[in-house]
Specification:
Largest sheet: 7 strands, mixed
Number of strands: 30
Strand order of the largest sheet: 7-13-12-8-9-10-11
Distance between the termini: 16 Å
Radius of gyration: 28 Å
Length: about 600
């Protein structure tokens, strides 16, 4: 009996569909379609894009949607590619002081805003219209502190929060008649400027602060203008994921420059063994530490640093998407790459930038409760067609890859997408070993965007995907490899003398400050740092011996295998190990695309090769 089914591959960047008619044990492919993924991979936002892709594929196959009897989805684990990546460097703050945040046991909960005042000065205060944040040095006993605060309140003085040097936050809070948020364990209490506007925020247990970790929250509290908000955003970022925080506003120039450290990465392996490494040690040292720890269980960043804020932000982004508690979400893999970061020069009068070294991180987050089942249920409801979850993505990809003419088992595939790089090996017996790693096309775009100081992700994406040229006259252009291209029609006037991105039907000029050599070097360097590094990392993990010289053939798949440079770079690198590498031609017609969607259909009939 003939049956029509659809295979759907939800990727980080694109969603691919294949439709086939099953006749006994054979699959006759009717059509395929590709759309941009809607939402974060593996979340219910994907349904909109899937519906469009299936409808378009059905039109191409000239069949009604109702004729499709089954839809098979890949087991799409939520991976935040773009949100998981961040540039980590030391940041100079001159507009505010950030201290004593995130002790183990802060007191109370809520938000307090007021002028900083020492505890022993409470009795001298006369302004009952003003709110105050009380500063309590270690010499002050907790009972005495609570007594003084309660007495001041009785005298009409409004106290909205407290900053405490000792670990007394809960003890003081328990003795207060009017409850306030208290941040304790502030060791350098003598550095707290007095008579300045301050904000104290403490979240309930199990929650994180919301106002002081939000640049617009800080802007509201301190009445900042847009330029000041941009500057204070770096403070907010470092506070993401903390349970408590103190931010004190100081006039420009009054506070000595303070650095929010890049911080340390703490990796947890099996049996709770931990290793940590400083971001400042560079990507090579970070990845070497990662290799030593073996099977990674989770990663966190040092509290109150840029890297700590990044990892905490990542967890909370995914927690909001999946409805799962942030503490249950684990980071299963990350890739560190050395990067050059444009940084504002302190005291600059014309927005000058200095290019400083830093580390770019791509992180992959997995949840225990994979929400792909929610995607399947919602899709089934909207289409009125039964939906089931297929196998692991890399396993499906290898089945699809075997439809490439000239391939057979044993086979090794390298699937290079937008957010992740996957590798899988199928031995002669059909057993599959696979790995799913963070870092792919999105990370390359981020590096290009940062290192060229573009502040334009779309432009960075275009640079990644296309070669360059420079118009020298009305009718000729110099290409990036030095050759000259002649045109039958004159080039547009706005392109003269500029470095251009050469798309198929469009020429996009780049800013005058960028030379063709610089853009090309950064583009190629970014691709090598991400794709060559990750390809070797992935392949070593799927080979039983871990030795690349034991491999003979590698088949490249995915959107990044269509790139005009990446496959050649990987082929060249793998050639050093005697490996023959090339990109796939799925079903003899689709190139490196549609492997997973094809594999989902073939696995449903128990076949490894399309008929």
């Amino acid at each position: 009996m003939k049956k029509i089914i659809a295979g759907v591959d939800i990727g980080n960047s694109s969603t691919e569909v294949a439709i086939a008619q099953l006749d006994g044990g054979y699959a006759n492919f009717l059509s395929q379609h590709l759309v941009k993924t809607t939402g974060i991979k593996g979340t219910t936002d994907n349904v909109k894009g899937i519906c469009v892709a299936i409808q378009e594929a059905a039109k191409k196959a000239s069949i009604p949607l109702a004729d499709i009897e089954l839809v098979r989805l890949n087991d799409a684990v939520p991976v935040i590619g773009d949100l998981a990546m961040d540039l980590i460097s030391e940041t100079i703050i001159t507009e505010s002081s950030m201290i004593g945040h995130n002790p183990d046991t802060p007191g109370g909960a809520g938000m307090g805003i007021g002028i900083t005042v020492l505890l022993d000065q409470l009795s001298t205060l006369e302004d009952k219209e003003q709110d105050y944040i009380v500063v309590i040095p270690k010499e002050m006993d907790y009972e005495w502190a609570a007594y003084q605060i309660n007495k001041a309140e009785q005298n009409g003085i409004t106290i909205t929060g407290a900053i405490v040097q000792k670990d007394d936050g809960v003890l003081i809070h328990n003795r207060l008649t009017k409850k306030i948020p208290i941040v304790d364990e502030v060791s350098l209490i003598d550095k707290v400027p007095l008579g300045k506007l301050a904000a104290v925020e403490v979240a309930l247990q199990g929650y994180v602060i919301r106002t002081l970790s939000n640049p617009y929250g800080l802007s509201t509290v301190f009445e900042l203008d847009p330029d000041q908000t941009k500057q204070i955003a770096l403070v907010a970022k470092a506070l993401v994921g903390n349970r408590s925080a103190v931010v004190i506003r100081t006039p420009q120039g009054e506070l000595v420059e303070r650095k929010i450290e890049a911080g340390r990465i703490i990796m947890q392996g099996v049996n709770r063994q931990e290793s940590d490494v400083s971001i400042n040690d560079g990507a090579e040292s970070i990845m070497a530490t990662y290799e030593k720890i073996g099977a990674l269980q989770d990663v966190r960043g040092e509290t109150g640093t840029n890297v700590g804020g990044m990892f905490n932000g990542l967890r909370h982004d995914l927690a909001q998407l999946t409805g799962q508690p942030a503490q249950e979400i684990m980071i299963s893999d990350f890739l560190a790459v050395d990067a050059v970061i444009p940084t504002s020069i302190s005291g600059a009068i014309a927005g000058e930038l200095s290019m400083e070294s830093g580390v770019a991180l791509a992180s992959m987050v997995k949840t225990d409760k994979v929400p792909i089942q929610k995607v399947a249920s919602l899709l089934e409801e909207q289409l009125g067609i039964p939906v089931e979850i297929g196998g692991i993505e890399a396993d499906m990809a290898i089945r699809g890859a075997l439809t490439t003419p000239g391939t057979r088992k044993p086979i090794v595939i390298l699937d290079m997408g937008g957010g992740s790089t996957d590798a899988a090996l199928m031995n002669e017996a059909g057993k599959i070993t696979s790995i799913h790693l963070a870092g792919a096309g999105d990370m390359v775009t981020m590096l290009i965007n940062s290192e060229l100081a573009l502040e334009n992700k779309e432009l960075a994406e275009k640079i990644k995907k296309n070669p360059l040229g420079k118009v020298l006259s009305l009718f000729h252009m110099q290409l990036e490899d030095g050759t000259i291209l002649f045109s039958k029609t004159p080039f547009p006037p706005h392109t003269f003398g500029k470095v251009l991105i050469r798309e198929e039907n469009e020429l996009t000029p780049l800013p005058n400050t960028l030379s063709m050599e610089k853009v090309r070097d950064i583009r190629r360097s970014a691709k090598r740092r991400v794709f060559v590094t990750n390809s070797l990392r992935a392949l070593k993990r799927v080979i039983p011996t871990g030795n690349l010289k034991h491999l003979s053939f590698v088949v490249m798949l995915g959107g990044s295998a269509l790139d005009f440079e990446i496959p050649q770079m990987i082929t060249e690198e793998l050639g050093k190990y005697g490996i023959v590498a090339g990109f796939a031609n799925i079903r003899g017609s689709e190139g490196p695309r549609n492997a997973v969607a094809t594999g989902l259909i073939l696995s449903s009939v128990g076949k490894e090769v399309a008929q």
